[in-house]
């Protein structure tokens, strides 16, 4: 095989506040031939995710910061073009953490072989991937069950759209919030939410109260900030919060003050539980069995927004932060 060139994105500078295209740099690098114990992979789909904004800061967190001048990382689905590892064959489909590039050579560490008959394969970045697992783990951690009324914020996104549907499959009542009338319509008419509202239309608490007048038992928090404050007010005594993310704050240079009504945690005897999905990767087989079955039986709908071409990956990332995605934001490589 002739030597390949891979187009890849690096972090050119660290954003302050909202990131922009200037923070990214497209470079080309020669792809070496795989040595013994290595595979050559062509990426088919790459993921852009909210947590990547955190990795752009030069601050210690649960994942190390991206380094300036290094190719960015992220989940990707690729096809093995050449294998010098006995357990991998040409044509195998693999999940890696080597996104933001067209090709790579790697040993088997960090590679997970996938069922190549699944269509679309991008499902492994969304409903059957990290976002779907986050939805499933989050609901399990607060033991969501039939009699609960559940509020999901960021409900039209990758995690939220799966969390709301899985909660419905457990027999709960579900209300979702999202940032456009089209998303609200989709939640009710396509995904079966009992109610939904556009958080940009007015106060969150009044809209939540109107949508679920009896209050809520569980809040699945993807947004933090004003959504968390509204949920604290709407939760019943002994209510539960699963803290998945706080996207409303990721681009704030100075973090806004916390919810003004945090003391309701005490007076209402609330429980708030946080989690990081990577701690739960050992549950992937069980997750794929349950959620994969729901999906193949048509009980769970997959939503994704697909942007074509590696050159558009930074714009797809920015658009996702601004809310132009419905379901999982995916970048499809040519
Ligand atoms: P999404 O697919 O939901 O995309 C992000 C969405 O956030 C946008 O589409 C936009 O939708 C919404 N948004 C942006 N700014 C705001 C705002 N100020 N207020 C309300 N909504 C906003 O992303 P994911 O599903 O991948 O992630 C959702 C959340 O889950 C994030 O907070 C993420 O960090 C977290 N997460 C946590 C994990 C964990 O391990 N704990 C794992 C995976 C994700 P809209 O149009 O509705 O505004």
> Mean of residue pLDDT?
97
CATH architecture of the largest domain: Alpha-Beta Complex
- CATH class of the largest domain reads Alpha Beta
| Global outline | globular
**What is the name of the CATH topology of the largest domain?**
Quinone Oxidoreductase, Chain A, domain 1
**Helix content estimate:** 10-25%
Helices and strands, in order, run as EEEHEEEEHEHEHEHEHEHEHEHE
The number of helical segments is 9
**Which stretches of 5+ consecutive residues score pLDDT under 50?**
none
Q: CATH superfamily of the largest domain, please?
A: Medium-chain alcohol dehydrogenases, catalytic domain
Strand runs, count: 15
Kindly give the count of domains. 2
Outline the biggest β-sheet. 7 strands, mixed
**Class computed from helices, strands and strand pairing:** alpha/beta
Q: Calculate Rg over CA atoms.
A: 20 Å
> What percentage of amino acids are in beta strands?
25-35%
Bound molecules: NADPH dihydro-nicotinamide-adenine-dinucleotide phosphate
Give the distance, in angstroms, between the N- and C-terminal Cα atoms. 19 Å
Give a verbal description of the structure.
- This protein is α/β, with parallel strands linked by helices.
- It has nine helices and 15 strands.
- Strands 3, 4, 5, 6, 7, 14 and 15 form a seven-stranded mixed beta sheet that branches.
- Helix 2 (130-141) packs across helix 3 and helix 5 packs across helix 6.
- The two termini are 19 Å apart.
- Bound molecules: NADPH dihydro-nicotinamide-adenine-dinucleotide phosphate.
- NADPH dihydro-nicotinamide-adenine-dinucleotide phosphate (NDP) binds at residues 49-51, 130-131, 134, 154, 156-160, 178-180, 183, 199, 222-223, 244-248, 275-277, 320, 323, 325.
